[in-house]
């Protein structure tokens, strides 16, 4: 496991919020010279601590007004069943996140679609047709007062 010092942690904190910040401004915020800051960022990238940079997209402006988390319990608990389910979720554009979890269900999905009708279609025509799926529970997101995903 790789760790970082307090300055590295501060660099990561700033970049997580403002991935397009200029190196000069980043250096100023973390208290380094621009060249030292650039070396630190490049080292974090080289080590794989920074895996990439993303845009934060306003989904509502793209017509995505319905977000839900869905727990999925599988009927078959084999590696093959999990792989098939994961393959299906990888191919579903509505699924923005798919997490294999511990507990009473095997998966937690973040689903983003235009509206309730689009979700019903996904629920019935995609999830409902998978032979591995035994149980689904949907949690509709009503608001997100804190969301730090990149």
Q: Indicate the low-confidence ranges by residue numbers.
A: none
The CATH architecture classification of the largest domain is: 2-Layer Sandwich
Class of the largest domain, according to the CATH hierarchy?
A: Alpha Beta
**How many individual helices?**
5
What gyration radius follows from the Cα positions, in whole Å? 20 Å
Report helical residue fraction: 25-40%
Under CATH, the homologous superfamily of the largest domain reads Lrp/AsnC effector binding domain/regulation of amino acid metabolism (RAM) domain
Describe this structure in words.
This protein has helices spanning 6-17, 23-30, 34-46, 79-91, 116-126, and strands spanning 66-74, 95-100, 107-113, 133-140. The two termini are 22 Å apart. It folds into two domains: 6-46, Orthogonal Bundle (Arc Repressor Mutant, subunit A); 59-140, 2-Layer Sandwich (Alpha-Beta Plaits). α1 (6-17) crosses α2 (23-30) and α2 crosses α3. With 150 residues, it is α+β, with helices and mostly antiparallel strands. The model has no long low-confidence stretch (mean pLDDT 95). Helix content is 38%, strand content 20%.
